């Protein structure tokens, strides 16, 4: 099940970003774009994400997956269509088997919602005085 390795990679990237921030106390949600053609089962990914988050800053975080439909374009006739599943990779207008995939293979973190230490937030918002 490759969803577990994907979930672990997502958790690792979010933890790294949180560590760079330095003031993150918890992560409440992670939003992913998952393309229809990415070969990922969203329910399996959610299950694996919950396991991968155990004993990390992300423990208890919600995984929100946003499905991206597959779309293709035919180079010869410029027709665009929804690819669907199983993918229809021949142009419905002219029958050419060489589509250009426009969308549907995405697998990316779109946003992360986290909580920060209140004192750290105040420190980063203060202007730096040039007077001494």
Which features does this protein show?
three-stranded antiparallel β-sheet, 132 residues, single chain, alpha+beta
Question: How would you characterize this protein structure?
Answer:
The protein is of the alpha+beta class and 132 residues long. It contains three helices and six strands, in the order αβαβββββα. The chain has helices at residues 2-21, 42-53, 118-125; strands spanning 24-35, 62-68, 71-74, 80-82, 99-103, 107-116. A three-stranded mixed β-sheet has the order 2-1-6. The longest helix is centred in the first third of the chain and has 20 residues, at 2-21. The radius of gyration is 21 Å and the shape is elongated. The relative contact order is 0.23.
Topology:
Layout: H1 2-21, E1 24-35, H2 42-53, E2 62-68, E3 71-74, E4 80-82, E5 99-103, E6 107-116, H3 118-125
Parallel strand pairs: 1-2
Antiparallel strand pairs: 1-6, 3-4, 3-5
Helix pairs in contact: 1-2
> What is the H/E order?
HEHEEEEEH
Q: Enumerate the strands of the largest sheet in spatial order, edge to edge or round the barrel.
A: 2-1-6
Could you state the oligomeric state of the chains shown? single chain
**Alpha plus pi helix count:** 3
| 3D shape | elongated
Largest sheet: 3 strands, mixed
Distance between the termini: 59 Å
Strand element count:
6
Strand portion: 25-35%
- The averaged pLDDT comes out at 88
Radius of gyration: 21 Å
Helix % is 25-40%
Low-confidence stretches: 120-132
Structural class: alpha+beta
